[in-house]
Amino acid sequence: MTGGLAREAANTDIPILLEGETGTGKTLLAQAIHNASDRAAETFVSFNTSAMTDTLLEKSVVRS
Known about the structure:
- The protein has one domain (4-61).
- Helix 1 packs across helix 2 (26-35).
- The protein is mainly α.
- 39% of the residues lie in helices and 0% in strands.
C-alpha cells in the first residue's frame, strides 16, 4: 500500500490493519495515512500487537 492506495485509505472511515516484517515502515505508513486524513488533527495511536496477550489484544481492538 503506497502512494495512491495510502491516499485512498486516508479518505475512508474504516479501520486499517497494516501487517509486515519488523522494520518495513508500517508505523511510518500508518502515520502518513493518518496525517492525510480528515482526522489529522486528532491523536494518532499506534501499538505493536505482537507484544500483547490474546486477551489484552481483544480488549484493545474489539469494541463491545
